[in-house]
Automatic annotation (TrEMBL), chain A:
Record keywords: Oxidoreductase
EC assignment: 1.14.13.149
Ranges that cross the membrane: none
Gene3D superfamilies assigned: 1.20.1260.10
GO molecular function: phenylacetyl-CoA 1,2-epoxidase activity
Keyword Oxidoreductase: yes
Species annotation: Azospirillum picis
Keyword Oxidoreductase listed: yes
A Pfam family matched in the record: PaaA_PaaC
Name of the protein in question: Ring-1,2-phenylacetyl-CoA epoxidase subunit PaaC
TrEMBL record, chain B:
EC number of this enzyme: 1.14.13.149
Leader sequence segment: none
Protein name per its UniProtKB record: Ring-1,2-phenylacetyl-CoA epoxidase subunit PaaA
An example Gene Ontology molecular-function term: phenylacetyl-CoA 1,2-epoxidase activity
Keywords on record: Oxidoreductase
EC class of the enzyme, as a word: oxidoreductase
Origin superkingdom: Bacteria
Region named Disordered: 1-28
């Protein structure tokens, strides 16, 4: 396997992870000042801050791997929808607090399992990023998991809301464990973890929390896919229009 | 963020009550004043005059409300920050403000009121918050102007509060001031990037300065002649400097900063007086200030509506958390018994 091919595959992997972090961080940041209580305003903003922080490290590294001189901002602010590679789960709108928590927990459980394994990556840069991110993600999954338990095993109304959200969002979880040929090579080289093994660990973690939350795990039916290839929902365009407004309106400016 | 002006009316309620003071009360009051005069900190369990307690509850809660409402105009730009570095800085700043709200509500709670009660007063419109947050943030430069001017003015007000006679408030202010001064430098640095940027960016910066300058001066509250009720707060060492003194300090510090940016202060009467070493500035339009206090600012309704919506939409979440905690307790009792 040539290093060039690894490099290209690693660019794709890092970009997907960076985009997913950025888009999910953006969604959480929409809560700032509007959460159910002050502690949650602070907590959700804090998780958003961490995710955008991860995105910065990942996009910077992706730019280096690509070798075309694109930095974190060039990648974040100057790509259109079909060049974004985030999971569809991340771009789903916030709806209500319960929906946000379910989306976050399904992601956090995946991110924790992923980053724990990436700490042992044979790619030193990725391992370094993972070592930093994993500490924060451990807190994220505790936060979203605790809330899922409170809401699932809270009142009838809260249970109904998160059960509905879980049903809506479950079809977006399949995409987290997809792999293509290029990624297969990265797995073989010990650069990224094996998605099948990741899925088993994720499912065990999710099922334990769902049980405590008195929620039923939805069946694995048809899974929505496409984000990893740049095929997105209608939501992402609006998100990017908002995020990218200033650099697009003032293309020559530095900020 | 905090404005002394808020208390202008409220302070009228702090005048010594006309009823006769018993000998015992007189002794307590004298002892209290002696401790304040000796710069000792008053702590939650110590005896304190009712007026002192009321004034502090009002001032600390208004300050807390201002932090919380202040998250809205700045939060308005988080999703549109023009670089990831700026986005992270703004997220961190707004998060700090939520944290300040939290310490301040906790400081107020030491005086015997609950946070829910105080939030209820904010949502019902009974409690005030800093009027500065009733102005909108239509452009990115507003984020710079708020950091530079609004946080700058807040620091002038707040640094003396670190020496406030009430211990929990003074200690909360030490931490808050440290973070606010960081925010102020960050805001100024943002303005500098705009001022040194393209002509369009410079125009954006000047426009923001034009809109925030006078409201920032108003943050210090009415002029000393209009604010005759602050002497009690001075004696209690809740307040250390007059509104006009603090306003002057702010102008003296800020005008050279604007000059360095190459921006002009929107005041044709502004001039340096070499004899006094101070900047003299034009008359403040208090009509606007009073209208905003009455609820007629550009964003008064929106700000409170946003807070109410967050509170109402979150009711089911808070209820679920309470219900879940009760279930857990029940289960633990069953297990133990």
């Amino acid at each position: 396997m040539s290093t060039d091919l690894h490099r290209e595959a690693l660019f794709g992997f890092t970009l997907r992870l960076g985009d997913t972090s950025l888009v999910l961080g953006h969604r959480l940041s929409e809560w700032c000042g509007h959460a159910p209580e002050l502690e949650e305003d602070i907590a959700l903003t804090n998780v958003a801050l961490d995710l955008v922080g991860h995105a910065r490290m990942l996009l910077t590294y992706a730019g280096e791997l690509e070798g075309k001189g694109r930095d974190e901002d060039r990648l974040a602010y100057r790509r259109d929808v079909f060049d974004y590679r985030n999971h569809l789960l991340a771009e789903q709108p916030n709806r209500d607090f319960g929906h946000t928590i379910v989306r976050q927990f399904l992601h956090d459980a995946w991110a924790l399992e992923l980053y724990e394994r990436l700490c042992a990556s044979t790619d030193a840069t990725l391992a370094g990023i993972a070592a930093k991110a994993v500490k924060e993600v451990r807190y994220h999954v505790r936060h979203s998991g605790d809330w899922l338990v409170r809401l699932g095993d809270g009142t009838d109304a809260s249970h109904a809301k998160v059960a509905d959200a879980l049903g809506r969002l479950w079809p977006y979880t399949g995409e987290m464990f997809e792999r293509d040929e290029a990624e297969q090579a990265l797995v073989a080289a010990g650069i990224v973890p094996d998605p099948a093994e990741l899925k088993a660990a994720w499912a065990a973690r999710v099922e334990a929390v769902l049980e405590e939350a008195t929620l039923e795990r939805p069946a694995d039916g048809w899974m929505q896919k496409g984000g990893r290839r740049g095929e997105h929902s209608e939501h992402l365009g609006y998100l990017l229009a908002e995020m990218q407004f200033l650099p697009r309106a003032y293309p020559d400016a530095t900020w | 963020m905090y404005t002394q002006g808020l208390d202008a009316k409220a302070e009228q309620g702090n005048q010594p009550s006309p009823r006769l003071v018993t000998e015992e009360e007189g002794r307590l009051q004298q002892g209290f004043q002696d401790r304040v005069d000796a710069e000792e900190k008053i702590e939650p369990r110590d005896w304190m005059p009712d007026g002192y307690r009321r004034t502090l509850v009002r001032q600390i809660s208004q300050h807390a409300h201002s932090e919380i409402v202040g998250m809205l105009p700045e939060g308005n730009w988080i999703t549109r920050a023009p670089t990831l570095r700026r986005k992270v800085a703004l997220l961190a700043k707004v998060q700090d403000e939520g944290g300040h709200g939290l310490y301040l509500y906790s400081a107020a709670e030491t005086l015997g009121v609950s946070r829910d009660e105080l939030i209820g007063q904010l949502l019902s419109g009974k409690a005030k918050y800093s009027s500065i947050f009733n102005y909108p943030t239509p452009t990115w430069a507003d984020i710079g102007a708020i950091g530079w001017l609004v946080d700058g003015a807040a620091i002038m007000n707040q640094v003396p509060l670190c020496r406030c006679s009430y211990g929990p408030y003074a200690r909360a202010m030490v931490r808050i001031c440290r973070e606010e001064s960081f925010h102020q430098r960050q805001g100024y640095e943002l303005m500098l990037a705009l001022a040194q940027g393209t002509p369009e960016q410079k125009r954006m910066a000047q426009d923001a300065l034009n809109r925030w300058w006078w409201p920032s001066l108003m943050m210090f509250g009415p002029s000393d002649e209009q604010s005759a009720h602050s002497s009690q707060n001075m004696a209690w060492k809740i307040k250390r400097f007059s509104n006009d003194e603090l306003r002057q300090r702010f102008v003296d510090a800020t005008v050279p900063q604007a000059e360095f940016l190459g921006l002009s202060i929107p005041d044709p009467d502004l001039r340096f007086n070499a004899d006094t070493g101070h900047y003299e500035f034009g008359a403040i339009d208090w009509t606007e200030f009073n209208e905003i206090l009455k609820g007629n600012g550009p964003c008064n309704r929106e700000r409170i509506e946003a807070r109410r919506k967050a509170w109402d939409d979150g009711a089911w979440v808070r209820e679920a958390a309470v219900a879940h905690a009760a279930k857990r307790k029940q289960r633990a009792l069953k297990k133990a018994g």
